[in-house]
Every structure is written in C-alpha cells, then in structure tokens.
Amino acid sequence: MSSLFARVFRQARITFEQTAIGDAKFAGHLNTLRHLLGQLTLADLNLDSSLVATETFQQPTKAPCTFVDVYENDRFAISVFVLRENYTMPLHDHPRMHGLLRVISGAVQIRSYTELARRDSVTTTSSMAAADGVLGSGGSAFRQRHVLVAAEPEKIISSSIGADSCALLTPDERNYHEITAIGGPAAFFDILSPPYNTNQPQHISFYRKVPVPRHLAELELGSPGEEKPLAPQPDDDRPRYVLESIPNPENYYCDTVQYEPPDFLYTDDDADRTSEGQRKRGSKKAISLNERRWISLPIVASFASLLQCFGGFPVLFKRLSFHAASCVRSH
Prior knowledge:
CATH superfamily of the domain at 48-125 and 140-225 and 237-259: Jelly Rolls
Protein name: 2-aminoethanethiol dioxygenase
Number of helices: 7
GO molecular function, one term: oxidoreductase activity, acting on single donors with incorporation of molecular oxygen, incorporation of two atoms of oxygen
Low-confidence stretches: 271-307, 313-331
Helix content: 25-40%
Largest sheet: 11 strands, mixed
Strand content: 25-35%
Distance between the termini: 50 Å
Shape: globular
Keywords: Iron, Metal-binding, Oxidoreductase
Structural class: alpha+beta
C-alpha cells in the first residue's frame, strides 16, 4: 500500500471533516485533494490487476460493473468502480454533494449536466410504461422529477498522471452525469461527500434525457402551469435538456469485491468519534476480519478433536469417502 493513498486519505479528512464548506480554506483544501488524486494509480490501492482485465468481463455470469467499497464514515465515502468496455453507468445524480473522480485504469467518457431548475410530481410505473408505448395495468406509485439542465462539454479522462485526470462535481455544478468505459475496461476511484446513506434526505436517482426546443428550455420548472422564463444568460450557449427520473435501470447491477483496508484507514480517533449505534461500515469490515481470525481457533480445535475420535486422518478419510460413495449410489 503506497504512502500516496495515505496522503489522499488524510487530505480527504482535512477537506471534508475538519473544514466547513463555507470556510475560506475549503476551496484550497479541495484543490490540494484533487492534485493528489491526479497521481493515484491502481497499484497505490493494492488492487489486483485482474479486476480490470478484459478476460474477467468475458465470464458469462460477470456483472457489467464491479464495486469495491473502500471506506465510509458520516462525512465522506471512498469507493472504486470497474466498468466493462463500452458499458455506461446510467445517468444519475449526486444531490448536495461534492465528488472527485480519478480514473486509475483505462479511460472513461463523462457526460455531465448542471441543474438549472426542477419540478417534482407523483406518477406510477404503469403510466411511464404507457408513455413509452408499453401497455399494462396497475403499477406502483413513483415520485417523478423533471430537471432542467445545461449540458457541460464531454470529457474523456484516462489514467494518465495529472490534475486534469480528476473530474470534479459540486452541489451546484456537474452533479448529474453518466460514465462510459472506452477502449477497454476502466476503473475509477470515487470520493463523495456527504455519502448517500447519511441521515440527510438524499438518495441516488436515475434519469433519462429528453431533448427540448430552446424556447421551452428557457422556462423555469415550477408547478404545472406556473412556469416562468429563466433569467437571460446571453453568454451561456450550453445545450438544454430535461432529465426525467426513472426507476432503477435493470441493466445497472454490480459484483462486489471485498477490500482489505490498510491500517491508516481506521485509526483510534475514528472509533472515538463514532458511537456504538453508528459504527462505520469500514469499522465493521475491520471487526469482521478480526472475528474471522478468532473464529478460526475453535474450528481448528474442533477439527483436532474430530480426528482424535476417528483415530487420525487415514481413518477419518476412509469413513468420509465411504459416506460420499454411499450418497452417490443413493441418487
């Protein structure tokens, strides 16, 4: 495990735990974190290169995406996503979040959008299907959102070293995006603050993009029938779209890989700052690793007792072999 990853982690704590967003120092801390991230590689995280191998994604049961949960507390989360070649992580949002994305293997294309206005309503999944030309009845209630956005320039980011290889989103800019792996599988390292599962009323939502005429795209989305023109933006020629929220896409699912955390991720002050009822997922991982080591002792002791009862390995092996053969014959 490299010292660079330790520096990235410490800077993330300084940025998101020890500095308020409104603090004058926040922008500087965020920029330092972005600069450090621009140097991070797959090897720095001690991740196996087979995660990003083309052969891995050729297995028939392999999901198009692999998720590695690295660290999470109530202020920020760190994870790694690996995408199959040409697979697109569906268009989704990051409500009220700061996020940094660093490609650590391969290359991705990122299409980002900045929110201008929104309108929420309640519909049903059946009415959405009918709008798509699919007939059906019933359907569950679904809170639908329409978001007027401005499209940002598309970016292609690779694992080359440099600050430009790290994408940034904020609560007000580029906080809707979709990500496509190009030229082969791609892996990216992700820091989000705050995480999705905090006590704040926020969760991930997925969207589809609906083109709209320019004159309609200039309307602010209030309540139905109450739309009003947006303030003029003469120098803003970014294309406008309406993003329509949809249920979780069926083609978005991930395999998960257990991450073995380095010691610096879980320090004593983490445990002190976290109550018994709000243990971090990462702390639970560290505990589970310890539990496995402790559990292994009685298992070994029990196996030794079993050997003694049966008279040693040869006798036990013969009895197990006989039992297995009997099971095969009975079927």
